[in-house]
Fold each of these.
Amino acid sequence: MEVITGGVTANVKYYDPYPIYMRRAKGSKLYDVDGNEYIDYCLSFGPLILGHGHPEVVGAIRKQLEESGTTIYGTPHELEMRMAERITTVVPCAESVRFTNSGLEATMHTLRLARAFTGRKKIAKFEGHYHGAHDYVTISVTPRLEEAGPPDSPNSVPDSSGILPSIIENTVVLPFNDLDSMQTLIRKNADDLAAVILEPAVKAYLMSDQEFAKGLREITEEKGIVLIYDEVMTGFRYGLHCAQGYLGVTPDLVTLGKIVGGGLPAGAFAGKKEIMELVSPQRSTKEPRVFHSGTYNGCPTVMAAGLATLDVLARTGSYEHIDGIADDLKKGMKSIFERENIDAQIVGPRNVFNVLFTPHKIINYRDTLKADAEKRAVFDLCLVNNGIYIRTTRAFYTSLAHSSSDVEKTLQTVERAAKKINE
Ligand SMILES: Cc1ncc(COP(=O)(O)O)c(C=O)c1O
């Protein structure tokens, strides 16, 4: 606590009464400093879709370090080309790519690109959507209901002190999965809007309604607004073609992170060539030019880990297994909650899902606030105290490393948690 402010290096890693400190991990398991074992459904907030220390990923990192004789070249290299080829082959909107070291950088650069491309200054984002910790998107991620404004026209509420008023004024906050209100607000601001950015599935579990996703694509196309799918979380979770492939909607730009680095720090942005071209150093200084750089962009070790991860995911049966584990957990939890007469929504179509204690359907951020937080706290504590690791209040992520015996043990613990809720 004394040498690391608040005891954590990312605020998301803090939870009450205190976070658990881990020392070791393997496959689906985490081991804390006291030697306790946990089945891990946090997976470092998503990237470890193959589980901890997958031998092919660790092998690729080792090989890269040993054979290249260095950690980084500081020049273009083959592995980043191979990764860019892979992304442009499988991600529908990706015609060309740039790498970053985090999802945060990726979203920041796409917004700058969109402003430069359109010559407009406003950005629209959705209430409850997270795009990293930079100023342009640290707005209305977790607003309190009292300050959030009308549901069909939300206020622009900063999530942090220190954000410039001009950024707050130039951010239009839209309601997610509300087609009519979204269209009205976009029409009202269309002349000033450079981009609309969204998580196609919020936190990877709360999916865009199909009509909503199509309507958003249509209106952004009609108004010449750059549509950015932030797929840092959903990228390669919803299959190799990402959430855009799953929804059948092609945005103008995409941001990637997490899985693309195979568990090492990574990010990327990609999209239509005519927009991406703006970052090219070969452009004349008379044209709009966007600056993008970074010492560690495309780090070869990261590319090696990411490519190894995508290779394993591309094999027949990988996604079936990862989705199958999530399905078994969801079905098992549903029947436990029904047996125990507990109102619960288990939300998430594929391999990420969340448990919200409410009888009502969840379609957006405000719905999640109406769920019973006390019941969820009892649930979380019981799970974590009994060897099931989740980041409290958050979603479950499954991996290739999870097994049916993990599912069985998890469901036994969920049964205990359900009984505790009813005590
Ligand atoms: C959808 C989304 N966008 C952006 C980010 C930021 O990524 P990073 O933590 O790598 O900066 C995250 C992180 O969780 C995310 O979930």
Amino acid sequence: MRRTGIALATLALGFTTACSKDETTTSQTPEARAANAGIVATKSDGEDNNRKIAMRDNCDPRDPAWAPTGGCLLRKGDVTVAEFGLFLRSPLTNPPNGQLIGHPSWRNEPSHLAIESGRTLRVTNEGGRTHTFTEVKQFGGGRVPPLNVGLTPAPECATAVNVPAGVKIEVANLTDGIHRFECCIHPWMRATVRVQREMESM
Ligand SMILES: [Cu+2]
């Protein structure tokens, strides 16, 4: 893996010395452009990024209304509790406001990922609120009844482990096939992870 990275960096160096300044912006490989920008592009970095998921939200740390439920540990965020509440349900349902939608900035990124068998998934809470990344057999509600809006809680949420803001977890030993994960606090935060042997055949 490391060897590939060095090879790319060397190649990039060759490009930068051989090309005129105009050409560097138009005809270089992505690796060469990365090297120009002071970034060392390696294949191993790319593979690593392909098995990371970030749990995100956008809570506004200036809103004291977050305090009673754990506060908001983001430095920059702009969603107040009031705005969060506005997006919880859709009025375009029968009965009106009868279905859970959830604020779109409470999300997993990416929300779908394919990884190679045997790889460990790395999940980081990059939001300012507590989340969970809980494997469930079927997507459902979580363990905070007001945030379920009619969804039956997924049974796995009864023992879900909190991931506080800023904390990283690893999910290892995933069997081949599709795995479903949800946040048991904000159940619209979902992710699917497909574990497969041959990444080339995707
Ligand atoms: Cu959450």
Amino acid sequence: MSRDLSTINSLAAVLVNPGKPLELRHIPVPKVGSRNVLIKTSVTGVCGTYVHYWKGDVRLPYPVILGHESIGCISELGDGIKTDSIGNQVAKGDRVFWVSSLPCGKCYYCMVEKDLTACMNRKSYGNLWCCDEFPYLVGGYSEYVYLSEGASFIKLPESLDDREAIAFGCGGPSITKAVEWAGGIGQGDKVVVQGSGPVGLYAILLAKISGASDIISIGGPSHRLQVAKKLGATLTIDIFEKRDPGERIKQVLEVTEGRGADFCVEATGFVGAFSEGIEMTRTNGTYLVVGLYSNVGNASIDPSKIVRKNMRIVGSKFWEPRHLYKMMHMINQVKNEFPIKDIVSHTFDLPHATEAIEAVEKVETVKAILKP
Ligand SMILES: [Zn+2]
Ligand SMILES: [Zn+2]
């Protein structure tokens, strides 16, 4: 692998100190080796976890170029790479969605369990990779991203445009994997989705397409709940209006014939949602916890409820390339039935990356993206 620097620089927004504005830096682009790919970033999402990264709730190997959900065009392709990660022929100029996670392929979870999401030595673009280390361009908040050997990327279907593909960000593949992990949503299921950010919105769309009969979206503010309705929510409960969890639980029980949800998805990022979700899930039901990744804390529950309700509580983190593939092709199939493109509510450029994160923190956005 060559480590010579070519003459191009890439403008990048870098998280150097939590709580401080992202710094703009010009970073030299390394020369592309035979097993590497250089991508010119077209769009990159502002994930809800960046609010936590930015505040310092999760420690990262600073300085870090954020951006773990990104689409771009192949600018340089190593001569050893002929296809994307699922076997499609690729050439310079092709649009691809690259996968942030880089598993080691050698640990117990990679080799015995065959679960790349549980890799013990995982590197991750956009968060767990210091940009002072080779190959430097290791996050989507940069004009160029350098894919190391083994990094996955998938060619976009031609008929799927960038805004549609990025609309749910990492929430799309995360929910695709999580719902699969939990055994799937069934026909006629009554589904509760806690949280109406991109993760929750994709759970609503997936429930709708899976044939759920009732989809109750609990979240806010109202502009997000309006989108939830367009994606298939049959009832919305605005947490800014109905502030008492007891009232929300009562309403869910009323519309689920007194039992609660067959399948409940936590996509809030608020620890307090956990005990509420337990109450909203019916006997023999499934409670899927996805959103509480960066939000550490203790929730108070009576564990006997889990026993007496025969409950399945399933946690899920990350996703594999196949989940991204499934999500992209599903969206491509339904994009004319649902207003996928409109989910992208805010677009920023790199110099305004900090403002983008602030807009997500204030819940002004449905989905914010950057165009480097
Ligand atoms: Zn994310
Ligand atoms: Zn591994």
Amino acid sequence: MKILIIGANGRIGRLITPAFAAETDVVTAGRTGCDIAADIADGGSIREMFAAAGNIDACICVAGDSETADIAEMTGECLAVGIEQKLLGQLNLVLIGQEYLNNGGSFTLTSGKMGDKPVAGSSGKAFVNGAINSFVMAAALDLKRGLRVNAVSPAKIGTVPDEDVIAAYRRSVEGSETGQIFRVY
Ligand SMILES: NC(=O)c1ccc[n+]([C@@H]2O[C@H](COP(=O)([O-])OP(=O)(O)OC[C@H]3O[C@@H](n4cnc5c(N)ncnc54)[C@H](OP(=O)(O)O)[C@@H]3O)[C@@H](O)[C@H]2O)c1
């Protein structure tokens, strides 16, 4: 199995990448410091990334910025960061990547606890997470060639056991489920 991990150098990426790399072929991608330089906010860059990676069975995304603020200070510019980076970036991975993944391959996106359990001041992040989860549930119904898509929705890293976070990504990649949100909280 060959796994593409986007955002491998980030907080979650540094947890899950060694776990998968210990057992299988892993290719990393990110804007800096990875095997493949790629920006998920740019559709052309996503296409080049999949072409460069080649022969991918599983695509995991642990990348995508979002910003938030108290609703009284919220701006469209603040919301746009999450829409363009975390939401559209990850959705485009599926839209474009469905052409490239091997038969039976899987996408694992990352949403987050605030999609279900928001706290004050989290609306800019909460709606992005909710939208990712809704997309995953619906897109799984359409994907062809046995392709699967799931999301991992973690709590803040450090507040849940690292092993549980790793296990959620493993369940998505190594299992047979699709259209699922694996909540780690
Ligand atoms: N950490 C948490 O507690 C937590 C909890 C729930 C959900 N999440 C979600 O999980 C995801 C990852 O979180 P994290 O804390 O691991 O983030 P992080 O530490 O900021 O790492 C993000 C990684 O993704 C890469 N990246 C960022 N934007 C990118 C882009 N447009 N194209 C390609 N690569 C990009 C970054 O590297 P470059 O800058 O070099 O590209 C970095 O390696 C985020 O969507 C976050 O909202 C995180």
